Prior knowledge:
Catalyzes xyloglucan endohydrolysis (XEH) and/or endotransglycosylation (XET). Cleaves and religates xyloglucan polymers, an essential constituent of the primary cell wall, and thereby participates in cell wall construction of growing tissues. This protein has 314 residues and is mainly beta. It has helices at residues 30-33, 254-267, 289-295, 301-313; strands at 7-15, 21-24, 34-38, 43-46, 51-56, 62-66, 70-80, 103-109, 118-124, 133-136, 146-153, 156-161, 164-170, 185-193, 213-227, 268-271.
Amino acid sequence: xxxxxxxxxxxxxxxxxxxxxxxxxAAATFNQDIDITWGDGRGKxxxxxxxxxxxxxxxxxxxxQSKNEYLFGKIDMQLKxxxxxxxxxxxxSYLHKDxxxxxxxxxxxGNLSGDPYTLHTNVFSQGKGNKEQQFHLWFDPxxxxxxxSILWNPQRIIFSVDDTxxxxxxxxxxxxxxxxxxxxxRIYSSxxxxxxxxxxxxxxxxxxxxxxFTASYRNFNADACISSSSSSSPCGSQPSLSxxxxxxxxELDSTAHENMKxxxxxxxxxxxxxxxxxxxxxxxxxxxxxxxHRYRGNKDCHKQINSFIHSHFC
Length: 314
């Protein structure tokens, strides 16, 4: 078996309680906006705060978190993944709401040399996921930096790669689907070993002869509402928008929507919405009952429910 590296690269947004916010649109530096939280020196901020690296060796991985907490915003980070054999290098972004675990997850699964890289996405509501979509990346994420973004406003969450949307999760609270509206998020990222489960179910183990494994970050930017004790205006109310804060009401225009559909058509390799073996009824088990009640008794009930799910969640 070829040598391999089983790595998890973990980028997350975790909900924290707060009530007062102000807008920030300034480009960030890692010195100003990031704290390295663990790794005993394996995480480093370099080049006057313009570059951050996380490393993993057999003894430990490393990680960081944002100094600020965010409620709504557009977060961008450029990332260059671990080069070489990097099975299950994982980029993971999620929203977490208290014990109910509001999460939106995107993961980049690394590979053995020559295999495609897989982008895995999922959305959790009240601790339940089962909304996976997976894509083969259309580039080598180890050859250069690429931009991974999350746009989160009161209407939707959009995940993008290099400014191309790949998935949209709409706010459907009106039909009983929880959506993060009142809890700010903190950004976390970590690099750690997961060879007990990540690569081919744990069959492929980390080849530590290639360690240390290093991932690099740059151009962190947060156009967002951040918690502040000096502001009296909650960001939950629509702010006075400048061109830099258009994300607060942004939606996909026709061109962006077509680009997203093109990515899904050409690079999607798994969609929970079409997994009839996993979901024999053609829908995930945690669809809110309001949807079933809305179409119950209709002649094409099953077809209408699936159409609704695809338009809102797929």
